[in-house]
Design brief:
Helix content: under 10%
Radius of gyration: 13 Å
Largest sheet: 7 strands, mixed
Shape: globular
Length: 127
């Protein structure tokens, strides 16, 4: 019922910036919590950042905090991830996610419980 589509991935130099966007449709996603996760080849999917329905509450992973900023559009059916100070460890497929019940904290701790996922957008950070 809920569809999520990511965009904005690409190649960026180390130390550079990139902005990812996610657009949702098919349900009242504007009232859902939303987040970003990433997965590098051969590694587990990991939490990056999450935001509540209003956009007033956010949670970041230790690696993202201070470098990345998650935000929601005014329509609340979009979520973005502004990434700065990128390094090679940030290279991964980034997934947008949404859930009708989970708080940002719950999403950070229980990513496997998140209901809806996008197909991902690839971010590659070069030296």
């Amino acid at each position: 019922q809920v569809q999520l589509v990511e965009s904005g991935g690409g190649l960026v130099q180390a130390g550079g910036s990139l902005r990812l966007s996610c657009t949702s449709s098919g349900s009242t996603v504007r009232d859902y919590g939303m987040g970003w996760f990433r997965q590098a080849p051969g590694k587990e999917r990991e939490f990056v950042a999450a935001i509540n329905w209003s956009g007033g509450s956010t949670v970041y992973s230790d690696s993202a905090r201070g470098r990345f900023t998650i935000s929601r559009g005014d329509a609340k059916n979009t979520v973005s991830l502004q990434m700065t100070g990128l390094n090679a460890e940030d290279s991964a497929v980034y997934y947008c996610a949404a859930d009708p019940l989970m708080t940002p904290q719950a999403m950070s701790m229980n990513p496997t419980a998140v209901d809806y996922w996008g197909r991902g957008t690839l971010v590659t950070v070069s030296a």
